[in-house]
Design brief:
Layout lengths: L5 H14 L8 H19 L4 H4 L4 H25 L3 H15 L2 H4 L10
Length: 117
Amino acid sequence: MNNDSLENLKIRLQKFASERDWDRFHSPKNLSMALIAEAAELIEHFQWITQEESGNLPADKLEEVEQELADILIYLVRIADKLGVDLVRAANEKMDLNKIKYPSEVVKGDARKYSEY
C-alpha cells in the first residue's frame, strides 16, 4: 500500500485498530483526549527554550518532536474518520474563511486576532 496520502493513512489506522480490537475504544471523545495529551507532549519539547532554539533543534530532539507530531496526526486522522470529516476539504474551507478574516492588505505583519482589527 502506498502510504503517501491521508486516505491511505486512514485505512492503515483502521486496520491497525481493528486487528487489535481497539476500535471500540476509539470514540471521538477518547481520541480527542488522546490528541490533546499528545499535543501537550509536543509542547514539553519547546518549554523553556528560546524562539531561535525552537527553530534549530538538535537531531535527537527533532526526532522526538517528529514522533509527537506523528502521534498528533494519527489521532487527528482517527477522529476525522470516526466523524466522517474529510480533513483536506475541511482545511481548505478553513483557509478560505481565514483569507476573508485576515486579508493580507490589512493584517500583514500583525499577529492580532481578526476580531481586534
